[in-house]
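User: Predict the structure for this protein chain, please.
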Amino acid sequence: MAADKIFGGSAFHSANGKSGRTLAIGLIATLAFTLGACATRPDPGDQAAMAAYQEANDPVEPLNRYFFAVNDQLLDGLILKPAAQGYDAVLPGFAKDSVRHFLDNLRTPVILVNDVLQGEWDRAGTTITRFGINSTVGVGGLLDPATGWGYERHGEDFGQTLAVWGTGEGPYVFLPLLGPAPPRDLAGFVVDQAFDPLTYVFWNRDSVIPPTRFVVNGLDLRARNLDTLDEIERTSVDYYAALRSLYRQSRNNEIANGEIDPDNLPDISDIDYEFDYEDGSDAIETEPAPAAGNNTGI
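Assistant: Here is the predicted structure, written as structure tokens:
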């Protein structure tokens, strides 16, 4: 399951037009306010605490946790989750799939532009082919015959493009309604509105279509992850930290297009194995590998 569909990253990708601009302004203002509250930096002499602090890269964690609680207990607990449960119970599976296919098809221009900006020409070809097939044979995007014909969907956004260009994620930020929004992904969300043709179609027009698209997208994603999020919450010691970690893992996987980076694999070349056969046993004794900073990688 694509984790971006869990953590609200896709909610970035659905807003457009006037609602998108209003939302972006609100996000920037909220971000400025958020930066005013900082987590307590541990004692530099406490190496373990400093390592954990730097790994979390969450300098405004107290405020992030506050917004997370607002989202989890109020927005999600009282509104979104009950609505998603009703949506999931009332709509048959084929209707929900049609909603998802239609929304995914609408997002094709944004994906295509980011495919091109990343130099992913094969994926750009797949995106164009999918749009042509699903918009015609797929009855305006309600069906997804392209996947059955070998043109599987992939997601792209400008946050991923910035990462491919070498931009770091920045500190972790959690915003009300949208969820995880570190600076790189937040900037990507704003720029993606410029790549969406519907932004210009509804520019300076009062229409229910952009906000309806945003709401239905969030509702459908929440409904598809009801059990997953319940399981994560039930099994996590720290629900906030668990989702923060999973969000980052998901984004890294998306940026790498699902490919494993060998540089991120653990180095096992320096592990020494000693075999002791003197007592007739086949036990294996190992010496711990040196710290990562001492590995030569040979």
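The two ends are 36 Å apart (CA to CA).
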